[in-house]
Amino acid sequence: MQRETISKAVKGTWVLTIASLFSELLSAIYRIPLQNIVGDRGYFIYQQVYPIYGIFSVLALTGLPVVLSKSFAQQNDQAAKNKLLKISFVIMMAAAIGLIFVIWSSARYLAIFMGDPSLYHEIRTVSLAFILVPFEASLRGYFQSDLVMEPSAFSQVLEQLIRIIIIIGSAVLFGRGAINIYQMGALANSGAFIGGIFAVFILLFTFLKSENKFFIKTPEVNIELEHGLGLEIVLIILFTGITIFYQFIDSFSMLRLLMHNGMPLHQAEIMKGVFDRAQPLIQLGIVISLSFISTIMPQLKKTNQTDQNKPLIKRMVRVCLLLSIAETAGLVALMPDINMMLFTNTSGSVALAIYMCSIFLVSTINLLVAVTSGDSSKNLSKLVLFIASLVFKIVLNILLVPSMHITGSAIATVLSECVILFGIMFIYRSSLGFLVLSWDFVLKTAVAGLVMALMIRALEKFMLNFMELTRLSSVLINVILIPIGVVIFLFFAVEWKLLKKSEWEILPFGKHLVKLIKIED
Fold first, then answer.
1. Who contacts 180 (Cβ-Cβ below 8 Å, separation ≥6)?
2. Which residues cross the membrane (predicted)?
């Protein structure tokens, strides 16, 4: 039975991971024609209200489904799950309607605060998507509680695909002069609502097709809820969407701070557009950790079951941390080439490379928060850490952005994330062996990533001796060096025995990989 649970958990993790990676890959790809057609200023106009969509995404795709899946998994029978589904849906619908009203009525003031009053149409358009949150979050959480990830995966991919078609269509209309830049932004952001409708259809169809007896009246049943669940929900939402909140701070502060020393508004908007190039890469990077969390959370049912699942959870944490370090190191090393390949120039590459450190930091933070989510005694401390990090980010932005521009904001974000990470490590200092495993593992993995990054960077410099960095050459460099980087990191991981055989097998095609590189326990 335990082996079946492990197999289902691993399969579910990678189903959701592959779907999320595909969705985020689409998200990264569409930004290429979008930025190429509308330019950095048009990209800024679209991206400036993106954090509002980001909040929707956290609520509908990650934060709420993750914590609801744990609550659904704690119920003793189907009737209790159905009752919890009804109650949670009604509460979320009431909250969604209230949120839409607040955003819609305050859109003009938010636009002025963001530095461009003409953005209010975009803000209102994207706010409509929140009406879909109760449907998406409750049904995804319901399916994920049974480690059934396929409905979440399929609906996520379809939602992103429809959204991207609308975004590219709006960019083409702008490029042909049919609409102005602000109409382009509003139309592009309507993709969140339209794509979400398709996702809801998939989820509802799957739910109604299953034999869950949802509409059959049942005797009164009791719902089991953990003490401190409300604060736990808040924490999971905040931390899984942590990058969005930093983006909010940048949206409301960066333009004014860039213009502090006399930079014209037009140039400041372009520079903010360059900085926003990092967002799809960051989101792509933390997909793996969020998928692992989606699988881990339903297994944190009760204390005794948590103890039984600790070996599996520990293995998943180790694999996830190793992958996030490898991702971060590779993106930092190849940032100029990735920047050129995706966005036609290398503007802001230093700032973007620094920003990529968020992948490892946010992935680690999310894992620690998820694994310790049931510890209600320390949840208030985590909330204080989160608030402190936002204040720290605001202060550092004020200090660094006027002089260091977007590089200052990248540094501010990374240091603010460190406040949370080191704070959580301090709070759980007596049980770090389980949370961050061993310092030996973390140190060796970090060194493997650093060596890989330095070797890739040296090879990139060598290749540029024979060619000029253009969009075509950057594609060639990435195609050659990314596989080499994977092999280098894999070599050190095997040589230093960073993962056990059972942990290697968690990876896609892990069993074949174990045989190929002859890994033994």
1. 174
2. 12-30, 50-68, 89-111, 164-182, 188-208, 229-249, 319-338, 350-371, 383-400, 406-427, 434-455, 475-494
